[in-house]
Here is the input.
Amino acid sequence: MAAAAVQSSWSDLPADLISEVLLRLPSLGDLVRLRAVCRPWLAAGARPQHQIPPPSPWFAHHAGTLFDNHGAPVRICSTPILRHGVSDYLAVDNLAFLVRNHGGEGGGAGRGICSLVNPISQSAEETPLPDLAEAVLRAMKDSNSFTPDNITMPYAKVIMSSPLDSSDPFVAALILEGYYVAISAFKRHDVIGFGSVPWDEIYMNIPGKGSKMYLVDIAFSNGWLYTLTVNEGLYVFGSDSVFHQCIVDDIDQRQIYTKPYYSDDDYLVLRYLVDCNGRLFLMRRWMGFSWNAELGGDVARTCRFEVFEADLTTIPCQWRKVDGLGGQAIFVDHKCAKFVRASKCVGGVQEDCIYFMNRFYANPCREYSGLSIDPLADSGVYNMRNGEITPLLPEAATAKLRLQHQYLSWFFPAHV
Here is the structure.
């Protein structure tokens, strides 16, 4: 008589075999999916993580979903990013910055509380940031235009000085349409502040200007917080909670450049500030657009980039143009600009290339005109060596992401 077949479960798979499988997975998304199967696989998946190369960046969807670089949704922790009480969120490197309205509906954005969470961890435990919210409130009180009741989302961009588990990380937020920066520490509750760059420091003899300068980006470098103005001035946030000038503003730099009178098209220039191992870089993003473009259409298309490094050793300090990224790549979107070592990423990241996506638009006109925004309408890979622009993703992955009809931002997953 034949022996009865032995029934076994996938959860009984030996740990050494699971380790061999993990070493052959093409992406961190597969690691996350494997660990979500059962507890034994979760435990085994935590052991060999140091042997798995970092993945290519993912896509964070405004509705709270993460997609890998194949356009497939990634299963995250049991608690979704847009959990109960969360009114909005931003992708911050490998974390999600959550914003809650304090006291429920109608509490006002400025009265909200905020926190950070790792969206692909199993615990989904939030790290509260009460001091940052307090700094934002203080900025609102200083502002003549914004109050907690007339702005829905004061946070334009959030950055970290170092990883969340480091000894003394800081968090900074570009807020209130770019006129203020709020900064606080996680572990020292006496460090709360906000700052802005006054017009007087730039336009000494031009009457009729407002009291604050428009700031386009912020970045931490060597532990210091820097901000970039629309006129490409560079400022550092000092211990006295005041911004000090490093590179003088160029009043000839503009956001819109007009072509000859016989052309309907003009250039919109966006600027980003990004750190690379203690070196600061300015990126100019040139976008061609037409004033006759319909709302909801392809408003602007990126045509080229320029990159400059801050030389802070000369007097006066200045921006110096560079022609390459030293084997690195830059990922940029409406709320992010980050260097990535191309050779260390899984997924074929190209050296000396800039990976870019739409600068904004969370489907602004869908409720009004029935149109919907293509989240990848203005996206691609800009090669600094030859100036060519190639598609950001294969068509199959692009088709999946276009179905979302909402803006996407970069998410840089870390091993969990």
